[in-house]
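Quick note —
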Amino acid sequence: MGRNRAQSITPHCTRLGCAEMTAQSMWLNGELVDDVTPALFANDHGFQLGDGVFDTLAIHDGTPVFLDRHLRRLRNGIDRLLIANTPTDGVLTSALFQLIEANSLDAARVRITITPGPGSSPRDRGTQPLTAITTSPLHKAPSSVSLCTVQWTRNERSPLAGIKSTSWGENASILRYAATNGFDNAILCDSTGRLSECTTSNLYLVIDGQILTPSLESGCLPGIIREVLIDEQLVSEQDLFPSDLELATEVFISSSTTGVVPVRSVDGRTYTAPGRLTARALETIEKLSGR
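Predicted structure written out below.
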């Protein structure tokens, strides 16, 4: 592929010391720049208000996985948040392949972030949105994970429900809680008590030989892997409740960067990881994504 723009630059220094930083390219509002280039106005609505949308996808063998699906979900978020003057899907696709070539990417994690840009107040947006496409290493998915249930809920009536919003503080806080208590992730219910999702992934239960996942009415994100598994007729949507975790013989989660990941325990209750149907879902996604 094209030349690698990675380069060593001036060390970044803090009160704790200095660390060597390595710059790669990122795509910022129409051009490739080093990813350590200052890119954000102090009054950007994404920074000040969490007003923005993002999407994260995997690169395998230099190819974006399920790109059309990701762009469709991103566009839905842009439209729902009424962010104007954003790049077209064609421009974003071209930018992504420019970035793959510039950074000589074979396997990577890519994030597309779009905000309304700087604005004078919460009510007043500017006219120039911010679009940034960045890359980072794609880490190997864990062989299995442990989950906990939590008291906090996913608000299925929120205007941000189902959007991959940059307003991510709630998820970050719950994820820290899970990690502090020795778990890998947390399961949230919606305001009616139905199972919804995990902080970073969709949730699946195997009950009576069927793979079931909470419906979008629970406020969960319309995950790309979730969408593929439903389209492949491996998974069905259904209202699920915490009591269903006791009926499940297998549990797994999914995200675009990890694929399908078996769950070995929820609140200490153990499951076969992977079980037969989990393994089938995992193999299907690996085959379709070129992993």
